[in-house]
Model the fold of this input.
Amino acid sequence: MADNKQGKRNALGRGLGALLNDSTDKTEVKDRHPLRERSAAVGSISEVQLDQIEVNPYQPRTDFNQEALEELAESIKVQGIIQPITLRRLNNNSYQLISGERRFQASKLAGLKKVPAYIRTADDQQMLEMALIENIQREDLNAMEVALSYQRLLTDCKLKQEELGDRVGKKRSTVNNYLRLLKLPPDIQAAVRDGKISMGHARALISVEDSSFQLELLKKILNEDLSVRKVEALVKQASFPDAPVEKSENKEENKEIIKVQDKLSSHFGTKIKIASNDNNKGEIKIPFGSVSELNRILEIIDA
Done:
């Protein structure tokens, strides 16, 4: 009894890889089927040689931070692979990554020869869809990578826009906000991708139709470290130069109105303005810059 307990403790102490090895060894003693020895079973967690794995040609992530990879590699040396990567089988001795490229690359840095993996059956389109959705749901892509992933799901995976939100677990308005980033000039998209400006800055710039003015505002944001609210004010001033400045004497009420405005602005992807009087009556203004912009807003309202 003591020996059995000690054996279990030793197996647990060696991590998931050791447990998988122990399980594999016991299986091989009972049944040395030649195909089981050559390839991993579909639908199971198996250990796969790193040199048998190809990278995912549909990988939505384009930026892998080397320092973060090295930190993950050090963690893998100590803890092993906590979450298996996901592969599809190409043939008996060859696999292709569906998801988990950071873990795959870090495992190579850590000097591992094998990694635990889920083996899935998937064609090219299914593989692309799984890779994109898995990465989006991990929420560690930058905003432009998310936007491009959504666009690829629409075009390459033939998803309809009304299906996309359900498939990725996001509100339709959120998906639309990301897709609208792709309409921005390349310099602004690059600034979002590199973290120089936030998605809030980008959403404010989207409502500007003149691309030269968008780029002028981008320079101003970078040079003066402007807040999102300041950029929204500049955009509003340029779009509605004759609009009166509305003030609220009640600071607490003003804070609540601003919170509601921000929430509505995020939902509709355009700057919403709420004006109220002392009798708690007022109006909500939803600006639009074109007929297509109006149709987009109406589509969200009807959703």
